[in-house]
Specification:
Layout lengths: L1 H18 L8 H16 L1 H10 L2 H6 L3 H14 L5 H18 L10 H27 L2 H22 L1 H14 L2 H24 L4 H6 L3 H16 L10 H22 L1
Helix pairs in contact: 1-8, 1-10, 2-7, 2-8, 3-7, 5-7, 6-12, 6-13, 7-8, 8-9
């Protein structure tokens, strides 16, 4: 997965080069910093994937809500970004709603220390990545910053492929066994992730980092909605738990999220 993520960086950088080549020029210092920032983005997936091996996916997904928390403090310290009391309360409601909707209340919710620390590290790395991107993009330009970040992401993945035998072996074996299908699906998924990241980065130029990443709280809600639609109309593609207890949990969480959004936009 780490290699697939870095490959999407190559494709994204090529598209930016082809369609907006005039904008990719940055100062040497900025280009080097943002390239390392791209490597940081790819590296943030490593503790996340290790955490997934040790804890339920529902719990791990909920812990991504640490990103806006770290984003708030980083934005406050390095950018002087301050949220109003209403924005803080609204953000808190969205984060709580996103955490609750992500949890599998029918299973064990005893969080282990190591997965929590791994996810805290991953969330912190993503928040730092967003901070550095915003600083460089404001100082230079958006598309040039995005180009060199994805160059750095691909370079980091290439180094892992060349020098870490386990990564190389698993990547080659996955592609071989999938006969192109797994490769195509993963690249497609990662390109969607690239588009989402570009939109989030652009939004961060217009609003405080914490508020941009709070909107990430919509993700588990949308996953639930997609799962519910599949369960009702295409059950052979996927099934969502729809017993009463689960539906009450999800509806309460969605209500919290939209209450937070209401106060955020008021």
């Amino acid at each position: 997965m780490v290699i697939f993520t870095s490959l999407s960086g190559l494709i994204a950088s090529i598209f930016i080069l082809l369609f907006n080549s005039a904008a990719i020029s940055l100062g040497a210092k900025s280009a080097i910093i943002i390239a390392f920032n791209g490597a940081l983005l790819v590296a943030s997936y490593i503790p996340y994937l290790h955490a997934l091996e040790k804890e339920d996916a529902s719990v791990i997904t909920a812990l991504f809500q640490l990103i806006p928390v770290f984003g708030y403090f980083l934005g406050l310290i390095f950018l002087g970004e301050r949220l109003t009391p209403v924005q803080i309360i609204a953000s808190f409601l969205i984060i709580v709603g996103a955490v609750v909707i992500s949890l599998d209340i029918s299973g064990s919710m005893n969080l282990k220390v190591k997965p929590f620390l791994l996810m805290a590290l991953s969330a912190f790395m993503i928040a730092v990545n967003a901070l550095i991107f915003k600083i460089i993009a404001v100082e230079e330009n958006f598309w040039g910053t995005a180009f060199w970040e994805y160059v750095g992401a691909f370079t980091f993945g290439l180094l892992l492929f060349l020098f870490v035998r386990l990564y190389r072996k698993q990547f080659v074996e996955t592609v071989r066994r999938g006969k192109g299908m797994i490769f195509s699906l993963n690249i497609f998924a990662e390109l969607l992730n690239v588009c989402a990241k570009l939109l989030a980065n652009f939004a961060s130029l217009l609003a405080p980092l914490a508020l941009v990443w709070v909107v990430n709280g919509f993700q588990p809600m949308l996953v639930f909605v997609y799962g519910l639609l599949l369960t009702l109309f295409i059950p052979q593609w996927g099934k969502e738990k729809i017993e009463r207890k689960v539906l009450v949990q999800k509806i309460a969480s969605i209500t919290l999220i939209f209450t937070g959004v209401y106060f955020l936009l008021k």
